[in-house]
Design goal:
The structure holds 2 protein chains of 2 kinds.
Chain A lengths: L2 E4 L3 E4 L4 E5 L11 H9 L7 E7 L7 E7 L5 E6 L9
Antiparallel strand pairs in A: 1-2, 3-4, 4-5, 5-6
Chain B lengths: L19 E5 L2 E5 L5 H7 L6 E2 L6 E2 L12 E4 L6 E5 L9 E4 L14 H4 L8 H6 L6 H14 L13 E14 L3 H12 L4 E4 L15 H14 L3 E3 L2 E7 L3 E7 L9 E15 L3 E3 L12 E3 H9 L8 E6 L3 H11 L3 E6 L12 E4 L1 E7 L6 E7 L5 E8 L2 E5 L2 E3 L2 H5 L5 E3 L4 E3 L7 E3 L9 H18 L35 E3 L4 E2 H9 L5 H8 L12 H12 L3 H4 L13 H5 L11 E2 L3 H6 L3 E5 L2 E6 L8 H14 L2 E4 L4 E6 L3 H8 L12 E7 L5 E11 L2 E6 L4 H15 L6 E4 L4 E7 L3 H8 E2 L13 E6 L2 E6 L8 E7 L3 H12 L5 E2 L2 H11 L31 H4 L10 E8 L11 E3 L10 E9 L4 E9 L1 H5 L3 E6 L4 E8 L9 H4 L1
Parallel strand pairs in B: 1-7, 8-9, 8-13, 9-10, 13-26, 15-22, 16-17, 16-22, 17-18, 29-31, 32-43
Antiparallel strand pairs in B: 1-2, 3-4, 5-6, 5-7, 11-12, 12-13, 14-23, 19-20, 20-21, 24-25, 27-28, 30-31, 32-38, 33-36, 33-37, 34-35, 35-36, 38-42, 39-40, 40-41, 41-42, 44-47, 44-49, 45-46, 45-48, 46-47, 48-49
Helix pairs in contact in B: 5-6, 5-10, 7-8, 11-12, 11-13, 17-22, 20-21
Chain lengths: 90, 982
């Protein structure tokens, strides 16, 4: 029962969101090598504690958010837009 | 008091002015409002209410609470039959029908009792050891298991759908107080006085908790309840806090009504988000394991006190109370006051003074219950200083009550991952420390004194208030401490050289012998012991037996209890209905129906509907009431190929992709180029996943320089939309593109067949439909029936075809106009069956081939991939394994014999030896009217290159068996596409 503070919609239940994976992964250019793509697509850390990850507010404003979540306690310390141009808050 | 009733003449919190009739095992009885089913049965002197799980020994009421292990009944009949109801928690209502479980012909006389006589053969692990691996191994075990399950079991659920209604509700508050005993009510009062918004949840149907078990309980509970109510505290009765979850969220189940009352919900699940939680869940009394401690007539001492004072019941005339702590004295005093003859055994040599008129035998313990079905006496023993027991005498009695100490209810903190901590000093598990806004008070925190409980409740509430930034007095929280007459750690009474049947977990018939057997066989970890003996795995989840089991294992291994461990309590605290969790999310509310804008129109035209994902789509349009789906789709595809047919394609995903970088964006998404697509043209595109596997396909239309309309498959509409948003917001924020789902805003109608242009010419204005002006893959605007439409010359059927897109609200008049021009030409309406059949004839891939495992090459689409640009999935699609010559590739399949049919899902084998997954499988089939035989698509290792013209075996063991088939090109009709271009 995680509450995610969506910068556009406010505090919302996590059931409105889809998990979007590790937000620290930098996807290479489309013409980069298969090896670079392999690293980006398949290799993941599995941290115990702080994790930076994407959540898609699919049942809300449809924003992709970068959320800081503790994988141990589910505590959310921050949530901001993934896209810089969306601003900081509502 | 009449002879047939053990109800006292006065007292209790029951409404004697009103009588409730109820039934147990077919006999009628009477009780009063305020009774539980268990108290009403006891009042009627019903001693045997159940049978043991394994040995079928008779069982009576053992407690007055959630921990009940004996009075487990089935309540209700027909679809409303509910098994495994704890009679102690079930409020009595008029017309209640209840039944004993696990017995034949009845709990009073049960033939299964023979298991008890042979019980020395039926210890822990007996069934597995005996039947597992006999003769045929697992297969035989499965047969034996069915018989064993019948012999040992709980009640059986109704097999009918549950007719009751449920719902889910959400709320929040400052403080949620769990439990309404002295600590809970004091906490609620203190928190409310600090001005906080307080909710009290109580699992019982009356507030008061332990107050209610005391002689002046009614009066004291009423006072405390009046106080919280005057302060505006929200009170939730019959509401169990079944779990605590992340982020201070509590799950509650409120039992609203037990009876059939129209649309009234039976239960309501609450998701509560309090800012602070105060746990005042009290403690549960432990029994002592001694011989035949499950005889009807033996119950918990605290339970007996509740029946005496709350329900005004004296369940026996001659009673023995056995205790290891002070609480047995209060029960003895109250029982004596009701007029019974009472002997009190105190295992300790020092204890409080004897209550008036009660004989106290110190240093004495119960050894064995006597009597075959109901209790007739109790063998007692003297406990030496070294802990040895010697039998002293038997006392005749029809009632025995036992208190072996107390176990704080630590379940809720355990749900939060906080391990309970064993306190040697207090002889119980105490809740561990938590950093979350959760405070434990009262007996749940190991306090046995009522005044201390109240104080600890108030202290917890004041602390919660201060944590919320509200002014509240500083109250010192009392700590659990040893009294002058502490509880004696006594879990089991044994006699040297004698075997006693002493139950630890009466619900699962786990005995002390089973625990020792587990130890002998090496299952010494608490988790292994639990699984080996099934201790604590019945519906009470070890509320009664776990501590004894752990203590006995500790004694067997010689380790202290603190090192032996505890089991992890998980939600729910006690069993809850699945229906309550589902709430209103059932049937179409769980899986909503998506209807196209032409749904009513289709039905008006006799469509038989089918569900594709959430969408309801026309399957076929029978022209006579008896036309079968096979006849209909063959007719529909024949007419469409020969003249013209209309099909509702509104469910396709539609996404507007707009902005100056829209062309570049599509270039990155699709394997083929879109940047240079001319305005007024459509193109078929395929997109891959990052890993190079095909994801989705569809046509995308360029409506103007910066406006594209993308279509997706019906199934992936939402997924593609989410992907586009992900790419634009996370990967390529520099692209100036906006996307919007317009799937529901537009209706789509395919007009397919050689006469499709004739139909459109008859109804369309403001559009030149000639082949020169409007070639294949063209997009034009026009007007039909006065409504603006988009016309796209695209074809899924392989015929000359168009798709007409119109605003959803204008769909019906446009469909009417199209049908008005189609019908006179001998055309038809066609559904998904004919649509799918025609795509198989053309070798077009769809969902069954885009199965998340196939690459472009596998599907014969390799030539689409652009070499001039990069796109999603291109890099990883180059991986070696995705170009293996053995990969399964798209092929066409035809039967070798006349008239034979094909089956989708059949495996393709190289020869008749069926082994493994073969060479491939058939993914889609249809009867081809034009070819006059069955055809199919499939994926097979090596594809057309390896197999063209060769035969394979279609293995379909559950339907048609083996059929010989020939592998051919997947393009059955018009491979050059002359029809659709013409």
């Amino acid at each position: 029962m995680i509450i995610i503070p969506c910068p556009f919609c406010g505090d919302r239940d996590h059931s409105e969101f889809s998990y979007g994976g590790d937000a620290t992964v930098k996807y290479p250019a489309l013409d980069a090598s298969a090896e670079e793509w392999y690293n980006a697509v398949y290799l993941r850390k599995n941290p115990r504690g702080a994790h930076t990850e994407y959540w898609h507010h699919v049942g809300g404003c449809r924003s992709w958010l970068v959320v800081e979540r503790d994988t141990l306690t589910h505590e959310i310390s921050s949530a901001k837009y993934a896209h810089d141009g969306y601003g900081d808050s509502a | 008091m009449s002879a047939s009733s053990s109800r006292l003449d006065a007292g209790g919190i029951i409404n004697r002015d009103e009588t409730l009739k109820f039934q147990f095992d077919g006999k009628s009885y009477e009780g009063h409002p305020g009774d539980s089913l268990a108290s009403a049965l006891l009042a009627n002197n019903v001693k045997i209410v159940g049978r043991g799980f394994k040995y079928h020994r008779p069982r009576g009421v053992m407690s007055a609470g959630q921990e009940e292990g004996g009075a487990i009944l089935t309540v209700g009949t027909g679809a409303r039959r509910e098994p495994n109801v704890k009679a102690t928690m079930q409020p009595l209502y008029s017309g209640l029908e209840s039944f004993g479980q696990n017995a034949w012909p009845s709990v009073a006389r049960d033939f299964g009792r023979v298991n008890d006589i042979g019980s020395r053969f039926l210890g822990a692990g007996f069934y597995y050891k005996t039947f597992f691996g006999v003769r045929g191994g697992t297969k035989d075990w499965m047969l034996f298991e069915k018989i064993i399950r019948k012999a040992a079991g709980m009640g059986t659920a109704s097999r009918e759908p549950d007719p009751a209604h449920y719902e889910t509700a959400h709320t929040s508050c400052d403080v949620l107080v769990v439990g309404s005993g002295p600590a809970g009510l004091a906490a609620a009062t203190q928190a409310a006085e600090a001005g906080l918004d307080v909710v009290v949840a109580e699992q019982d149907f009356t507030l008061g908790g332990d107050y209610l078990s005391q002689p002046d309980g009614a009066h004291r509970a009423v006072e405390a309840v009046a106080k919280v109510e005057s302060l505006g505290v929200s009170v939730m009765l019959r509401t169990q806090v079944f779990g605590l979850y992340d982020g201070c969220v509590a799950g509650l189940i409120e039992s609203v009504t037990d009876q059939e009352t129209g649309m009234q919900v039976r239960q309501r699940m609450w998701i509560v988000r309090p800012r602070q939680i105060i746990i005042a869940t009290g403690a549960i009394e432990r029994p002592i394991a001694f011989g035949n401690n499950d005889r009807p007539g033996i119950m918990g001492s605290a339970g007996l006190r509740t029946y005496l004072n709350r329900y005004a019941i004296k369940p026996g005339q001659e009673a023995v109370i056995a205790t290891t702590n002070d609480s047995g004295y209060a029960t003895a005093a109250d029982l004596k006051a009701s007029g019974a003859q009472v002997t009190l055994l105190d295992a300790r040599t020092h204890g409080p003074d004897a209550p008036e008129g009660v004989e106290v035998l110190r240093g004495r313990v119960p050894v064995k219950g006597e009597g075959w079905s109901e209790l007739q006496g109790l063998q007692i023993g003297k406990l030496s200083e070294s802990g040895e027991v010697s039998v002293e005498k038997s006392i005749g009695c029809d009632l025995a009550a036992v208190s072996g100490g107390w176990s704080p209810v630590v379940n809720l903190t355990s749900h939060r991952g906080v391990k309970p901590v064993w306190s040697e000093e207090m002889d119980c598990f105490l809740p561990g420390e938590t950093k979350e806004p959760i405070k434990v008070c009262g007996s749940a925190a190991g306090l046995w004194d009522e005044e201390e409980c109240r104080l600890s409740g108030a202290a917890a509430a004041a602390e919660a208030a201060r944590d919320l930034g509200v002014n509240a007095p500083v109250i010192e929280r009392p700590e659990p401490r040893r009294t002058n007459t502490p509880t004696m750690a006594l879990y089991e009474v044994t006699l040297p050289g004698k075997k006693l049947k002493s139950f630890v977990d009466p619900q699962h018939d786990v005995t002390t012998g089973d625990i020792r057997l587990a130890h002998q066989e090496g299952f010494v970890s608490v988790e292994h012991m639990k699984r080996y003996t099934t201790l604590g795995m019945a519906t009470d989840q070890g509320k009664v037996g776990n501590v004894i089991g752990i203590a006995l294992m500790a004694a067997a291994t010689g380790a202290p209890v603190s090192k032996t461990g505890t089991t992890t309590f998980r939600p729910p605290y006690s069993p809850i209905s699945i229906g309550a969790i589902a709430g209103r999310s059932v049937k179409q509310h769980f899986r909503p129906n998506r209807l196209t804008p032409l749904d009513a129109w289709n039905k008006k035209h006799n469509a038989v509907m089918t569900q594709a994902g959430l969408w309801w789509r026309p399957w076929y349009y029978p022209i006579t009431p008896t036309e079968s789906v096979d006849d209909a789709y063959e007719r529909e595809m024949k007419i469409t190929r020969e003249s013209v047919g209309l099909c509702d394609v509104s469910s396709l995903g539609k996404i507007m992709v707009q902005g100056p970088d829209a062309g570049e964006f599509l270039n990155r998404l699709y394997v083929n180029g879109f940047g240079k697509l001319a305005v007024g043209k459509a193109r078929y595109g395929v997109m891959l996943r990052d890993d190079g596997i095909v994801y989705d396909d569809g046509t995308t239309w360029r409506l103007s320089e910066n406006d594209f309309l993308m279509t997706t498959t019906t199934a992936n509409a939402a997924g593609v939309m989410a992907k586009l948003e992900e790419y634009l917001q996370t990967r390529w924020p520099e692209l100036k593109v906006s996307v919007a789902s317009v799937s529901d805003q537009w209706a789509g109608i395919a007009v397919a067949g050689p006469k499709s242009r004739d139909v459109l010419e008859a109804v369309t204005t403001e559009c030149d439909l000639s082949n020169e002006a409007f070639p294949f893959m063209g997009i034009r605007e026009g007007v039909i029936a006065g409504k603006k439409v988009y016309l796209a010359r695209i074809s899924f059927s392989g015929e000359r075809a168009y798709e007409v897109y119109v605003r959803s609200g204008d769909a019906e008049p446009v469909a009417d106009a199209l049908w008005g021009a189609t019908e006179p030409l001998g055309g038809c309406l066609y559904g998904t069956e004919a649509l799918g059949a025609m795509r198989v004839e053309k070798g077009h891939v769809a969902g069954s081939e885009l199965d998340g495992r196939t690459t472009l090459e596998d599907l014969g689409l390799g030539k689409m991939a652009s070499s001039k640009k990069a796109y999603i999935g291109k890099a990883l699609a180059t991986r070696e394994g995705l170009h293996d010559a053995d990969r399964r590739q798209l092929v066409g399949i035809i039967p070798t014999g006349d008239g034979k049919r094909l089956r989708a899902g059949a495996l393709l084998m190289a020869d008749t030896e069926q082994q493994g997954h073969g060479e491939g499988e058939i993914t889609a089939v249809t009867y081809s009217v034009e070819l006059g035989h069955w055809i199919g698509l499939g994926l097979i290792k090596g594809g057309v290159e390896r197999w063209d013209g060769k035969t394979a075996i279609s293995a379909d063991p559950v339907r048609d068996g083996n059929t010989e088939v020939r592998i051919v090109s997947p393009h059955f009709l018009d491979p050059k596409g002359e029809r659709m271009h013409g």
